[in-house]
Amino acid sequence: MENSPYTTKTLNLYRELREKGFDNVGFVIQAYMRRSLDDLKELAPYKPNVRLCKGIYVEAESIAYRDKEEVRSNYKRLLEFVFENGYYPGIATHDEPLIQFAEDYIKRNQIDKSKYEFQMLLGVRENRRDELLRAGHNLRIYVPFGEDWYGYSTRRLKENPEVAGHIFKAIFGIS
Ligand SMILES: Cc1cc2nc3c(=O)[nH]c(=O)nc-3n(C[C@H](O)[C@H](O)[C@H](O)COP(=O)(O)OP(=O)(O)OC[C@H]3O[C@@H](n4cnc5c(N)ncnc54)[C@H](O)[C@@H]3O)c2cc1C
Questions:
Q1: pLDDT recorded at residue 117
Q2: How far apart are CA 79 and CA 51, in angstroms?
Q3: Rounded to the nearest whole angstrom, what is the distance from the C-alpha of residue 86 to the centroid of ligand 1?
């Protein structure tokens, strides 16, 4: 999912594909967007495969939560909604409180590992990734791939320079 001018277009594309009978598609929902719960509710008939992330772009406060705790709370609310309504979530986060929230929720509700997966970026929090695998969860690694990988990566860096700090720390094993 790109930034807000593309949210509706992307979700419409998903809807169109599902209507045409394509089942092996999913979409991303960003927890910082105030509209996200409504978007999820609207797509309920498809029982979608949805990647849940915090969101990487810098959006206006009128449409997005800016406070870290608010983004976390909304992430938790969205994850609960997705589980309660039988969607298939990709829990795409490296944030420890959110990973722990998801693990607790899964354990408490005895959710089978075929009903969800964790997702992480290649090279980020690899020890934690291995712990999740040892605990019996499925986990998918995200790798930007294709001819336009450089344009894609630099665009995201420009949108959110904080990512550069994360990458620096990850390379030198600081985080
Ligand atoms: C599989 C996957 C797909 C994604 N797809 C999208 C998308 O389609 N649209 C979108 O807007 N965003 C996407 N994102 C990015 C996401 O929205 C967040 O910006 C990003 O994951 C950081 O948020 P966090 O939940 O990991 O928490 P944070 O609090 O930001 O990070 C927690 C910790 O993880 C580490 N970390 C996080 N990100 C990085 C990094 N890039 N490099 C090194 N260390 C890092 C740091 O140690 C940080 O302290 C995706 C993320 C993942 C994992």
A1: 98
A2: 10
A3: 24
